Structure formats: C-alpha cells, structure tokens
C-alpha cells in the first residue's frame, strides 16, 4: 500500500512541493542577519549620553539605550520587508538623496582658476537684468477712463489699495512679468517716460501707469558673481557625478519606457 502511494504522480508532486517550501523557509531563516549589539556600540552609547547629560551613564541608562537600538533595528528591517522604501514617497526621497551623497562623496574645493573659467564660459548667466521704475494707481475693477485725464493734469486720484504701494522702483523685468504678466510688461517697455497711460490690465487688476526710469542690463564682475558662480559650478559637478554613476550601473537595470 505504501509503495503504491509513493508511485502516485500526484502524491510525488505534493511531496516535492512541500520539500521545496521547507528548503526555501530554512534558507530564509539561515540568511537572516542577526541583530548584533557590539561592545563598541555599548561604549559609544554611554559616551554620547555622558556628553549630553554631563553625568556617567548608569546600568539602567545603558540598558534603555541598548533596547532602543535593538527596537530601531528591528523596526527598520520590518519596514524594508514591508517595502516602505518602495511605496512611501518620503522614505524613498530620503534614500535617493542619501544615495546621491554616497555617489558624490567629498568634493574638493575648486580652484580660483576653475571658477573664473566657469564664469567666462557662462558669462551671459551673470548679469543684472534690465529694470523699470514706475508709479501706478491700482483698481480692483476696470475704472473710468476719465481717471487718465485727471492724472495727466496732476490731480490726486484715490485708487484701491495695492500691497506694494504706488511707487515701484527698480523692478527687474522678470519680477514684473511674474507679478503682473507679460502683456503688462510689454506695455511698460514700450511706454515713454513720465507720461501717464492706461487703464492697463494685469494679472492683479487694473492700473494707470507712469514709467519714471529704465535701467539697461549689465554684466556682473567675477567678484560680484563669485558666490553664484561657486554655487552653479558645484551643482554642475554634483549632477555630472550622479550622471556618471548612472551610466555605470544603467546596464544592470531593464528600462521600459511607455510611449503613446
């Protein structure tokens, strides 16, 4: 009877499956890295506590620190098992950022010659942009066109309150574009100085405007742009380091791009 059972293909399949499962489970248990609390860690915990409190750590203190260490290690491993590094955006972001630092390492301080060379290669980036100084009378809703004649005659006109006031000196064109919109900026750039015009609509409301001064853009000297040059140079070196690392390991990954 027993011999016939072991000759049944279905029984053999079930037994083989159970054996594979048992071996896999055994390997999983064997490959589990133990949570190890070294003597060096114990000493470090005691020293850190003494630095923080100014008092020598008691056995109770050390026991608490050791328990906290073991608890954190177990929770960390359980988080990895649960795939939090793959599904939690915050955890994923922190790991990616830490990996960037690992890839980059410690950057050497760039020489002055390298910074000057970088500055000259990107000279158009380092300039004071053109600016416009202007006055305006602001209205939330489209105002009566008669306001223009009153302003042109030098009469005082009360508009609605504007958070930046009525006089806006030396506003860069990018700031004007961002605050008021491109159409408003175009009107300022083509308007003659010291002449009221409007009403002009912006992203914020309606304006009667008088340009009082315009300033052309001018390049920044290396000395004035040095901090920005250093920052831009560093960012470029960091990005190049990460790109080089990705090129090295890219072949280890299958990349699938879904294109419509």
Structure description:
This protein is α+β, with helices and mostly antiparallel strands and 260 residues long. The protein has a domain at 127-219: Chitinase A, domain 3 (Roll), CATH 3.10.50. It has eleven helices and six strands. The protein has helices at residues 2-7, 9-30, 39-53, 59-81, 84-87, 89-104, 112-121, 146-152, 173-180, 182-190, 222-249; strands spanning 127-128, 131-139, 167-172, 196-201, 206-215, 218-219. The strands form two sheets. It has a four-stranded antiparallel beta sheet. It has a two-stranded antiparallel sheet with strand order 1-6. Helix 3 packs across helix 4, helix 7 (112-121) crosses helix 11 and helix 9 packs across helix 10 (182-190). The two termini are 63 Å apart.
SS elements, strand count: 6
Query: Biggest sheet, open or closed, and with what strands and sense?
Result: 4 strands, antiparallel
Rounded radius of gyration (Å): 35 Å
- What is the percent of helical residues? 55-70%
> Would you state the CATH class of the domain at 127-219?
Alpha Beta
Low-confidence stretches: 1-6, 10-30
Give the terminus-to-terminus CA distance. 63 Å
Oligomer state equals single chain
CATH topology label of the domain at 127-219: Chitinase A, domain 3
Q: What is the 3D shape?
A: elongated
- Our count of helices gives 11
Structural class: alpha+beta
Average pLDDT metric: 82
Strand content: 5-15%
- The CATH architecture classification of the domain at 127-219 is Roll
Strand order of the largest sheet: 3-2-5-4
What string, H for helix and E for strand, traces the elements in order? Answer: HHHHHHHEEHEHHEEEH
């Amino acid at each position: 009877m027993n011999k016939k059972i072991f000759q049944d293909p279905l029984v053999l399949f079930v037994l083989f499956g159970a054996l594979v499962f048992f071996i896999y489970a055994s390997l999983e248990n064997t490959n589990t890295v133990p949570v190890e609390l070294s003597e060096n860690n114990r000493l470090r915990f005691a020293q850190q506590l003494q630095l923080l409190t100014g008092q020598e750590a008691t056995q109770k203190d050390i026991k608490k620190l050791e328990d906290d260490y073991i608890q954190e290690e177990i929770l960390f491993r359980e988080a990895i098992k649960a795939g939090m590094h793959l599904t939690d955006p915050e955890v994923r972001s922190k790991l990616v950022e830490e990996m960037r630092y690992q890839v980059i390492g410690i950057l050497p301080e760039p020489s002055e010659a390298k910074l000057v060379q970088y500055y000259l290669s990107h000279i158009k980036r380092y300039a004071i942009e053109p600016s416009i100084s202007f006055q305006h009378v602001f209205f939330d809703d489209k105002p009566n066109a008669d306001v223009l004649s009153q302003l042109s005659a030098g009469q005082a006109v009360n508009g609605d309150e504007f958070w930046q006031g009525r006089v806006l000196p030396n506003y860069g064109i990018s700031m004007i574009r961002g605050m008021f919109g491109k159409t408003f900026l175009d009107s300022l750039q083509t308007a003659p100085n010291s002449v009221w015009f409007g009403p002009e609509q912006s992203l914020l409301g309606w304006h009667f405007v008088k340009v009082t001064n315009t300033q052309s853009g001018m390049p920044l000297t290396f000395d004035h742009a040095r901090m920005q040059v250093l920052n831009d140079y560093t960012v470029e070196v960091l990005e190049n380091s990460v790109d080089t690392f990705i090129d090295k390991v890219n072949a280890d990954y299958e990349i699938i791009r879904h294109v419509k």
